[in-house]
Automatic annotation (TrEMBL):
The protein, known as: GNAT superfamily acetyltransferase
PANTHER family found in the cross-reference section: GCN5-RELATED N-ACETYLTRANSFERASE, N-ACETYLTRANSFERASE DOMAIN-CONTAINING PROTEIN
InterPro entries: Acyl_CoA_acyltransferase, GNAT_N_AcTrfase_prd
Signal peptide residues on this chain, from the entry's feature table: none
Annotated TM spans: none
Lineage: Bacteria, Bacillati, Actinomycetota, Actinomycetes, Micrococcales
Organism: Leucobacter komagatae
Gene3D superfamilies hit by this protein: 3.40.630.30
């Protein structure tokens, strides 16, 4: 098990509690069949699913809870408005895979998702887990900004059509390409951001990959153009990743900032 110090853990818990307080929310672990079912119903509402076609089946939520996986909930005025699920990876990796997280549309922008992530961070560290990974749609600029700049997580891999066809109101009709990101919970930058530090200026890189301003609206107004963006970003990012480039930052209006493998090797030699 990772040797996480008492001070590290205490700071992580305090950071999570502060984030929840600033959001005006209560964030806690969800336990038992009734609360797990409530999480399933909330996720179905967020993703536009029905009880007959849930995002996460009630039976699987029961298994997650019984086997000690992460089920977190965020409340505003006693009402469940956000939730997150994470599953343990293989034992030797000491990694949690955060499968899904979401908040009700009317609460977007209130930092509830951020409070959920910091709760998940503290929960993981309490269990000796120092890495959390998850996937997100590489075309959604606000998610890229949140994951990379606000949390300090970085993409590892481009996953083409990862889930296959998805029958929900957010993803229907589009390919489910995803970026897999890694969140090193004990990294000094991650700890500083969790403690309230303002993200610094975007680093310099060798290549930038521009994103559409609002792919979610574009999918509705011009589906064909949205699909062109999907193919273009897939081709550009997979090509760069195959050449050894790494994402080192993100900036709204600029996009992903990548460093070529040759630049990374040069920096390593200089160090």
């Amino acid at each position: 098990m990772t040797n996480i110090t008492h001070d590290e853990l205490a700071r992580a818990v305090a950071d999570a509690e502060r984030a929840a307080a600033l959001a005006g929310a209560t964030v806690r672990e969800m336990r038992g069949k009734d609360e797990e079912a409530e999480v399933g119903e909330l996720l179905a509402r967020i993703w536009g699913r029905t009880a007959e076609n849930p995002v996460v089946p009630r039976e699987f939520l029961r298994v997650l809870g019984k086997t000690g996986n992460y089920i977190g909930g965020a409340f505003l005025d006693g009402k469940l408005v956000g939730a997150s699920l994470g599953v343990h990876s293989s034992p030797e990796r000491l990694t949690l895979h955060s499968h899904i997280a979401g908040v009700l549309p009317e609460t977007v922008g209130k930092s509830i998702g951020y409070a959920l992530k910091l709760h998940q961070r503290a929960w993981s560290l309490e269990r000796g887990i120092d890495v959390v990974e998850w996937t997100f749609d590489p075309l959604v600029s606000r998610n890229a900004n949140f994951n990379i700049r606000k949390l300090g997580a970085f993409p590892l891999e481009y996953l083409e059509n990862f889930y296959g066809a998805m029958a929900d109101t957010i993803n229907a009709g589009d390919l489910s390409d995803r970026l897999l990101v890694r969140w090193d919970l004990r990294d000094p930058q991650v700890a500083a951001l969790a403690g309230g530090a303002t993200p610094g200026p975007a680093p310099e890189g060798d290549v930038t990959v521009l994103l559409p301003d609002d792919i979610e609206s574009l999918r509705v107004s011009d589906p064909a153009e949205a699909k062109r963006w999907r193919r273009a970003i897939r081709d550009e990012l997979t090509g760069l990743f195959n050449d050894g480039a790494k994402v080192v930052g993100f900036e709204r209006g600029v996009g992903y900032i990548l460093q070529n493998a040759s630049t990374e090797e040069k920096k390593t030699d200089e160090d």
